[in-house]
Design a protein that fits this description.
Structural class: mainly alpha
Strand content: under 5%
Distance between the termini: 12 Å
Radius of gyration: 18 Å
């Protein structure tokens, strides 16, 4: 059973957006691993965010022209909105790091961004299964994995902030790093929100 008629292409839009968010997550990790927060990287990150916006608003327009949707219209809108918000958080993280001109390698940033990327990839996997409710258990299992990853991100965040207050003596540097980590955590939390929305959609269809 398909949730949308094939000709509506809603799943294609969702999958395109999931791909774009994953591209953004990979790009942020590449920036962190290579300590490359140049203007060129910041520009490309803005482009990726704009590309995600285009997909999102194209889908909104399609949604407004569709009279009946097998999934609640509000759920689909919320899903699109939160997926786009992940990309917004990725962009704001990268631009924040660029603005603060970070030049010091930080293993905690890489660890947290890796968790973010894993969460995005698991979200992409369940988005690609959403077209068929025969995949419902696989989707729900994926949602549980995302919750587990989100909890891991929380643990890294708490330990990182605790260590920052112990080791960092420069108050300005402390505030910079705290903001950067909080922005990454925001992206991970939004992935968890996407998972909750999808879980609700699946349970409504059960």
């Amino acid at each position: 059973m398909r949730l949308f008629p094939k000709e509506e292409n809603f799943f294609e839009y969702l999958e395109d957006l999931a791909n774009k968010v994953e591209e953004g997550g990979r790009f942020l990790l590449e920036m962190a691993e290579h300590l490359d927060y140049s203007d060129a990287k910041a520009t490309r990150l803005k482009e990726l965010e704009h590309e995600a916006d285009v997909i999102t608003h194209t889908t909104y327009a399609k949604l407004h022209k569709t009279f009946l949707t097998p999934i609640d219209r509000e759920d689909l809108y919320a899903l699109l909105n939160k997926m786009d918000s992940i990309m917004d958080a990725i962009e704001s993280t990268g631009l924040c790091i660029c603005m603060y001109k970070v030049t010091k390698y930080n293993a905690e940033i890489i660890e947290q961004v890796k968790i973010l990327l894993q969460t995005i990839q698991k979200g992409k996997e369940i988005i690609f299964n959403l077209h068929d409710m025969k995949n419902s258990q696989r989707i729900l299992d994926g949602c549980v994995e995302i919750h587990t990853l989100e909890n891991a991100g929380d643990t890294v965040m708490r330990n990182t902030i605790k260590n920052l207050f112990i080791k960092e003596k420069d108050a300005i540097e402390l505030l910079k790093w705290k903001e950067i980590f909080e922005r990454i955590e925001e992206a991970i939390d939004t992935c968890d929100t996407v998972s909750n929305i999808i879980e609700g959609i699946v349970l409504k269809q059960a």
